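Colleagues,

For the teaching module next term, I've prepared a clean inverse folding example: a structure given as C-alpha cells, and then the sequence designed for it. I'd like students to try predicting residues themselves before seeing the answer, so please don't circulate the second half yet.
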C-alpha cells in the first residue's frame, strides 16, 4: 500500500515541544511576524536567532514519542512517504529513514545572500559569516510566512499516486498543506485525520480518529500492519 502521512505540531506536542498558536497572534510570547517572517528577520536578526536558538535547544532535549516510533514501523511494511510541517528531528530519531521537511529544519542554516546551505551549529548569531560567500546573512533554514514550502515537487506526485493519505496533529490552517486532503480526495485517495480535535479542513477527510497521537497513531499503524 502506498501511504502519504503529513504530520504537524500535534505529534511533537506530547514530546514537550510547543505548538504554533495563531489565535492570539503570539508564539512563545513573540509576535509571529517578528520571529517567523523575512521582514521580522530583516528588522531584528538577533531576536530571530535567539528565538530559534531556544527552539533548537528544546528540540534537542525532547525525545520521540510512541507516535513517532509507530510511523517508523509503518515505513518498514508499507510504501510510506512521510511529510512533516515540523522543524524538529523527532521523526528521524524515532527511526524513520526518510522524512520530507516541507518547512525546513532547525538542523539547517541558510545564507540569505547566496542560498548556500550547511548544518546549523547549536547556536547561531547575526554576525555569523556564510562559509561560501562570507556574507553575514546567515539564517535558520526554516520556511517562514510568505515563503514557498520545500519539496512540493515530491509531495504532490506522492499524493496523486497514494492509496491512503493521513494527516496527524495538523491544524488544517496552513497552506498548501491544508489542501493536501482535498487534492488527494478528488483523485479518489482515501483520507483519514488523526487529531486531538477536528481540524479546520475536517470536511476533506473520509475518516477521523480523535485522541492523543501517542495513543491513536500506534493503534492505527497496528491495524495497517495487520493487513500485510
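(Answer key — instructors only)
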Amino acid at each position: 500500500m502506498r501511504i502519504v502521512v503529513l504530520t504537524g505540531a500535534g505529534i511533537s506536542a506530547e514530546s514537550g515541544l510547543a505548538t504554533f498558536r495563531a489565535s492570539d497572534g503570539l508564539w512563545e510570547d513573540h509576535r509571529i511576524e517578528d520571529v517567523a517572517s523575512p521582514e521580522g528577520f530583516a528588522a531584528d536578526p538577533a531576536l530571530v536567532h535567539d528565538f530559534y536558538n531556544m527552539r533548537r535547544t528544546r528540540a534537542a532535549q525532547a525525545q520521540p514519542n510512541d507516535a513517532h516510533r509507530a510511523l517508523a514501523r509503518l515505513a518498514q511494511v508499507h510504501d510510506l512517504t512521510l511529510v512533516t510541517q515540523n522543524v524538529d528531528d523527532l521523526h528521524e530519531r524515532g527511526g524513520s529513514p526518510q522524512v520530507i521537511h516541507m518547512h525546513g529544519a532547525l538542523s539547517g542554516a541558510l545564507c540569505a545572500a547566496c542560498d548556500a546551505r550547511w548544518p546549523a551549529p547549536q547556536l547561531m548569531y547575526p554576525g555569523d559569516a556564510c562559509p561560501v560567500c562570507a556574507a553575514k546573512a546567515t539564517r535558520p533554514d526554516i520556511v517562514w510566512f510568505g515563503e514557498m514550502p520545500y519539496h512540493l515537487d515530491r509531495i504532490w506526485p506522492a499524493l496523486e499516486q497514494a492509496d491512503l493519505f493521513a494527516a496527524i496533529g495538523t491544524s488544517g490552517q496552513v497552506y498548501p498543506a491544508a489542501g493536501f486532503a482535498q487534492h488527494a480526495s478528488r483523485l479518489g485517495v482515501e483520507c483519514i485525520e488523526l487529531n486531538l480535535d477536528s481540524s479546520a479542513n475536517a470536511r476533506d477527510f473520509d475518516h477521523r480518529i480523535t485522541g492523543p497521537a501517542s495513543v491513536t497513531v500506534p493503534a492505527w499503524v497496528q491495524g495497517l500492519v495487520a493487513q500485510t
